[in-house]
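RECORD TYPE: inverse folding
INPUT: structure tokens
STRUCTURE:
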């Protein structure tokens, strides 16, 4: 008999100190779990919001995406969950320097710290009603975070306009990180 999911999660978190190698785990589907990650970042289990941030972080550490579906996985169990938009929200951004280059670091609502670089790029996706382009950042293995409004406004302050010689369309705002430029939006 398999050990209970919570016990497995605690053991895995201690063993891997961060994110277990969920990309290597391929158990058969165990079923659907009544767990929903809301657009606003709340994790709701059986109609009740999970209040313990440590439990949310534990679940987030074993989250896996396959196509358009999301799962909580262990080496022996795989539970499908519902995600209304994306599983994470970038709630903070900091600017610093690494190897003489500007680097932006984002912190998610589950404690992940993600650099903006080629391995963690921006993507502009429609969000809201009416749909507006909103930046998302790759956190890990196909899991994305939507930038909070506060983070977006901070980036707008740091953004630069495209140099005139490069302009061939409407205005564009770019930010720099890890030696590269990333499109923040158009105006």
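DESIGNED SEQUENCE:
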């Amino acid at each position: 008999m398999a050990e209970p999911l919570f016990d497995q999660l605690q053991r895995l978190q201690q063993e891997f100190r961060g994110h277990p190698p969920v990309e290597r785990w391929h158990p058969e589907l165990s079923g659907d779990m009544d767990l929903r990650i809301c657009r606003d970042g709340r994790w709701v289990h059986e109609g009740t919001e999970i209040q313990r941030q440590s439990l949310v972080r534990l679940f987030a550490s074993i989250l896996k995406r396959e196509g358009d579906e999301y799962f909580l996985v262990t080496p022996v169990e795989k539970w499908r969950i519902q995600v209304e938009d994306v599983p994470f929200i970038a709630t903070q951004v900091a600017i610093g320097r690494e190897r003489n280059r500007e680097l932006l670091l984002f912190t998610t609502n589950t404690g992940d710290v993600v650099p903006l670089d080629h391995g963690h790029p921006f993507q502009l996706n429609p969000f809201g009603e009416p749909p507006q382009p909103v930046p998302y950042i790759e956190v890990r293995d196909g899991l994305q975070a939507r930038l909070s409004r506060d983070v977006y406004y901070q980036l707008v302050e740091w953004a630069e306009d495209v140099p005139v010689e490069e302009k061939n369309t409407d205005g564009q705002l770019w930010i720099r990180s890890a030696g590269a430029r990333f499109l923040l939006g158009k105006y």
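NOTES: The first helix runs from residue 5 to 16.
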